[in-house]
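Batch 3, record 17
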Amino acid sequence: MSMQITAQNFEANAAKALKDPNLRKAMQIIGGPMASRRVETARELPEFEALRDEGVKIKNHVLKHIDLYLEKFEQQLTARGGKLHWCRTPREARETILALCRSRNAKLVTKGKSMVTEEIGLNAFLEEHGITPVETDLGEYIIQLAHEPPSHIIGPALHKTREQVAELFEDHHPDYELPNMPGVKAGPRSTEPQVLVTEARQVLRDRYFQADVGITGANFLIAETGATVIVTNEGNGDLTQSLPKMHIAVSSIEKVIPNLEDLSTILRILARSATGQEMSCYTTLSCGPKRPEDKDGPEEFHVVLLDNGRSEMLGTALEPLLRCIRCGACMNNCPVYHSVGGHAYGWVYPGPIGAALDPHMIGLETARHLPNASTFCGKCEEVCPMRIPLPDVMRWWREQAHEKQITPPLQRWGIEAWAFAAKHPWLYRLGAGIAIGLLNMLGKDKGRLASLPLAGGWTDGRDFPAPQSASTFMSQYKSKQGAAR
Amino acid sequence: MSSSRDRIFATLRSGLKHTVNDPARPEAVAERIARRTPNLVPQRAQIPHAEQVALFTAKVEALTVTVDSVPAEQDVPGKVAEYLAQHNLPSQLRVAPDPLLENLPWGDRPMLQVDYGHGRSQDLVSVTPAFAGIAETGTLMLHSSTTTPTTLHFVPDHHIVVMKESQITGSLEDAFARLRDKLGTADKTAAENWPRTVNFVTGPSRTADIEGVPVLGAHGPRRLHIVLIADGTP
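Prediction for the assembled complex:
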């Protein structure tokens, strides 16, 4: 039981999203300030493009030696007193984490932001087994209250308006008292983000101290030292992992990098690509449990490493996706994501990276619409710090869908008929000539057509311009050439 | 049945195809992990120390961090007391039990209640040292140890860092190199002595999770203040 998948309904999801006024407002933030901040900070660093190349080089080198780097990481982590748990499937990862929590009789678990725990559907699983997970990243906390999946990998609640957040807090914090005013219930909420942030801070404070286990993700695994790395802005990940007795870092195998020099290089492109910051507020390396002489820190440190099909991507057309550092730049810059939002994609990873990755993880049959959710404008590849050829991968998936006969028969036959015509110019010209003549005749009066058979998807939203002449481009060209001679 | 670990490695190795048998691979990995030559370091980090101090100060101030420069260690308690007064804070400090801080003349300010230890829920203001300051981004590098508990960096509302100008470096790589130098001992490598936690802190806690509006003080410290001791170049 993983996160609920609705990717198969992409078309319906998207149609619904297009009519959601709150989503329209939210998408302006992602396509506006979030995208432009990246451009500004990148411009301030003359070496930015060269650093992207270095990042690609590092990741490509790792992928050629990934087995050896993972072995080295495991060896170093173990030497520092940490324990590594290898998990092939989401189910194995969930069960491993549950067993770890039970070993400490955990009732309450705090969580830092982790996309891999979304991928394995951890929260619902823990709840089913009597353990309460509390998300502590503000965005994750908001969507946990709303019982929704994240809509963006770094801004999971960006689809929510401030009014919706205020309502959620009113519903879920009935006992919340105004800061510095003991006994005064907060009542109807202000919708000021500052006030709402203060409320979340206050409510979650006690949770950090009460939690039996803290679960975080990990952006990187460093082979040199055996450390995991988290990159955050709020400080919630650090409170989550330093106060409870057990820290579990949940990550995936492609996140390993050689050494601290490589970490330095990738950090320079990560935050700039993600939020347009030069560095995120908190970058934390965690290595083993607290040392015997330390005054704080967890007594146990576990790393749960998920495969979930990643190892199968090596040596295939999907291998470049293993370079992804989950910055979200591709969604911040995608016109399709801006139109339909993250939920429409119907699984954990939305946007261009999701369109390229999800078919592998949840099956092409289920996710077949996602590689089509692209205009191939190429912006995602242009902004990807790791220069992942996302449009190429989506095109590859389209070919797969066609070859495996996953696309609907009508579409396949249509494409085949068109291909046949394209390979036989006389037939193509004949068909084009008839179509042009017909369209010209039908649209003669108004110069446009309000509806067309088989093209309802286009004409429902706008008119189709009618050809101004009854003859094709080729025949006009030929007659002009004849006239010139 | 083979273990998950074995099966993951088997799939990875089959994906690597013929290259998996290349005898040069283990050596390439060992060399790469041990390599200390940085990749590309931005020009802005490769400047003389005095300029690094200026850049560090400008970068942290742009992140709303306040900086007090003092000529000598003995001036620190006075500046800390001033900070508390400015922000209407009680005169209670939770201080890292670090020699630099323990040896400050706190007695000069008898009103200050100074106690040492890790961060607790009731602590409003912490005072800690830092291991390094990184000029290129205005980032502090701190690490856990018996004298520098990590919770002091995250639990209190106000985090005051006391550090020396000589601790400021140009780049992230410079700071890592210094940490490796400090941790490496005669019988153990730096990696073997690696601490539980290394924190890079760039400004106070923040979030933009509600409508993308930047708000300070999400879960970590709402304010970050640095008292910088002018001890010159290292």
